[in-house]
What we know:
The chain is an alpha/beta fold. It has helices at 25-34, 55-67, 75-86, 90-99, 116-128, 149-162, 192-197, 220-229, 242-245, 247-255, 275-283, 290-305; strands at residues 12-17, 37-43, 104-109, 133-136, 165-171, 203-211, 233-236, 262-263. Helix 5 runs parallel beside helix 6 (149-162).
Amino acid sequence: MSTLDELGLDGVVDVHVHPLSMIGEKELLRELEKAKVRKCVLLALDVNPAELDDEGKARAFVEEMFNAGIWDLNALEQAREMLKLARTPNERVSELVSRHPGLFLGFGSVDPRKPLGQVEETLRRLEDAGFRGLKLIPTLQFFCPGQVKKALKKILRFCERSGMVVMFHTGCDPGPWEAPDLSKCANPALLRPFIRSFGKVNFILAHAGSYSVRIPGIWFEEALELASSFSNVWLDTAAVPYVITDRKFLRALKARGLMGRVLFGSDYPVFVVGISDVVREILASVEMTDEEKARVLCLNACELLGFG
């Protein structure tokens, strides 16, 4: 097994960590130290915990679940709990970054369904606060890219001007969103027109289009196609480390010449495995060269985010 020292690295860069309210600051710092993470991207999530408390929205969501083959009577409540758990205010991320500026980088979040004036105001606040990127999640924010074109174009023009990176959740999600039909708006193929129109904006396809318990690698090919076609597309490994440790997935990445745009992400604490365990799995890979391991664990993110 390789070590970080043998790779010439003084630590790992994790581009995908959720500072959920259930995780205390000390616990988060301990986990990062244990995994030798030297830089970490903290993700805000602008989701509405009360989204499904509205009777009309709840009824429409239940109908969607039925159409997706979900007949569990507890699924609606499970979805409500997911939204409450996932909500991570921009202010929480900003506070953690301000207390640990050498360790944390912040990616803010905005719901593209909100009124455009509200979206613009949120973007201004994020820029003023020094955020380095934005996180959008079609599943828990209940949007399809093609249905919020005006807002997404405004967000992407903002990223183009400010130099911010944009991260899109791609793939399924836990709970009811494990049903592919319920997560279809997170198919990375839907982002093609936006990626094509905003060539100066760097897009991270979180989970490499692959997260799914039922169908691992569900939209991996779609993510590969985008990354192969556009040099501003990056893939992260959050919750799907198999895309770089499983021979089939890894060979597909290598065949497309994409190892220079794969980013290590842990999805901590959502992904049940600790960050250090995932790092060890990558270091132990016999399919990756030391150079590829170094790029994935650190160097690619340094290049994208502009630090040494």
